[in-house]
Amino acid sequence: MPQSEMPTMRSRRLGAELRRLRSDAGLKVQDAADALECGQPKISQIETGKRGIRQLDLTTLLNLYGVKDEQQRSNLKRLARDIHKVDWWSGQGPLLSGDLRDYLTLEADSSLIRSYEPMVLPGLLQTEAYMRQIFTAGAEADRVETLVQTRMRRKDLLHGTSEFRLRVIIDAPALHRISGPAELIRQQFQHLIEVGNQANVTVQILPLNITLPPAQYAPYTVFTLHGEPPIEVTWLEHMTGGTLLEQRPDVQVYTKAWDDLTAAALSPAESRQYILDHMKGESGS
């Protein structure tokens, strides 16, 4: 990948981890520069994700920082290689925003995704008709098809051969806000039930009679990234894109909120029945 195309989500993650390791070792940027026999600007560019790092240089820094755990070293070396990985969405050009590309990278690099949605159904659980309706209402006409096809391709994660788990909590109003023809609504409910039956997917509904904290909860996703030890980050949705939280205290706020929401939500079996009952109500039977 040309240096002009950086930083990327992966290069920023690697740079942030190298910066943390250097800081924990009590070393300055100049100490790292001396070890690599380079100037401070190169180290700064690596730590901000503006450039990659050779495997030999990475090994030198890991030795300097006292990183002895072989699994941790292996994970960082893999991440350094993946900076140059060409993902399936790379050819979509400007039709995909930078925020969406970042989200897709996090999604592809995760072993577990936990998502809370209060307004719409999670993207990985949407039917094509439902997502097309959402994009038609909220996106420029020339981007709709690209966005639909991108979201459909994302759903491959649910059927991949690698270990991947998806857990979602859907606030009940999101089910009631599905608009469109009766057949579209019925198919979306049926799809929720079918996907929820997969061993690697857990769907829970947060019922209407649950009282949330006064501050409410915005839609968010906690990604557990591949690696040992695994790294957790949180993605916050907002009207103009998304914000990534990587600092442990910030992420812990949302993992604690996830535990609270999970406890308050219906069990997977109860959630399935809730959806079935709602389907019957929609059909008038």
Automatic annotation (TrEMBL):
PROSITE patterns per the UniProt record, alphabetical: HTH_CROC1 (PS50943)
All copies of domain HTH cro/C1-type, residue ranges: 18-71
Recorded superkingdom: Bacteria
Pfam families, per the entry: DUF5753 (PF19054), HTH_31 (PF13560)
Name of this chain's protein: Helix-turn-helix domain-containing protein
InterPro entries: Cro/C1-type_HTH, DUF5753, Lambda_DNA-bd_dom_sf
Species of origin: Streptomyces longisporoflavus
